[in-house]
Protein: 3-methyl-2-oxobutanoate hydroxymethyltransferase
Organism: Sulfitobacter porphyrae
Amino acid sequence: PQKALTASDIRARKGGTPLVCLTAYTTPVARIADAECDVVLVGDSVGMVLHGLPSTLPVTLEMMILHGQAVARGLERALMVVDMPFGSYEEGPAQALRSAARIMAETGAGAVKLEGGRHMAETIRFLTDRGIPVMAHIGLTPQAVNALGGYRVQGKGEDAARILQDAAAVTEAGAFSIVLEKVPAALADRITADLPIPTIGIGASAGCDGQILVIDDMLGLFDDFKPKFVKRYAQLATDARAAVRDYAAEVRAREFPAACHIFTDEGAD
Ligand code: KIV
Ligand code: NA
């Protein structure tokens, strides 16, 4: 079997062919993503797209580990990164190490991701010094939605300085790559040009070193709402609703099951 990509392999892709990244939360979807992706992220977006939660805040370490184990069974080549959920790392480096060590040991992930810039630099340094590759995540950090006052673009105008400082701090702390979420394209391009590590954009810029989307969003499977930065490459929820409608009609009309779906005394099983 093919050897899986490592965090160092991903870091070495700075400035090369753009990194293809998607989220996944289950084994069958991980298999589909693995065919094309360099990185598969078990995102805490799992709480909203699979569990119907109103934000990522209620997601627990146990949920991330369970979904991480499922995704690991579907991957051969992609680097698996698992999100550290809200409340599992913010107390400080020691708590973050305990949580990250459980994720790495129990799922086989090749790296963890955590949200935050300057104020997370010490924690990122602590983890990377102890053998845990960290993907940083700055700009719009959904776990801070209550402090940010909604899911707004971050780093507009004068506020760009704050995002630039965050990018520099997490890089200096040893992150192997950095997610830039919902920042102006020109700012994403500047960070991509300045930093020695790959930037992975979501609502950022085509000039980033890679792109990531929530797979349920790009498949049109989660269609409660569509952020501007999402492009739908399929309409799976629409297809699924039509399929359930057809099934219901055929059951009511006694058209399903048909002859080819049923068994007789003589026929093959
Ligand atoms: O949880 C998630 O899916 C993420 C990506 C959108 C970057 O953090
Ligand atoms: Na996330």
User: Anything to note?
Assistant: The pocket of sodium ion (ligand 2) is lined by residues 43-45, 83 (CB under 6 Å). The two ends are 35 Å apart (CA to CA). The beta strands are 19-23, 39-42, 79-83, 111-115, 134-139, 177-181, 199-202, 210-213. The chain has one domain: 7-235.
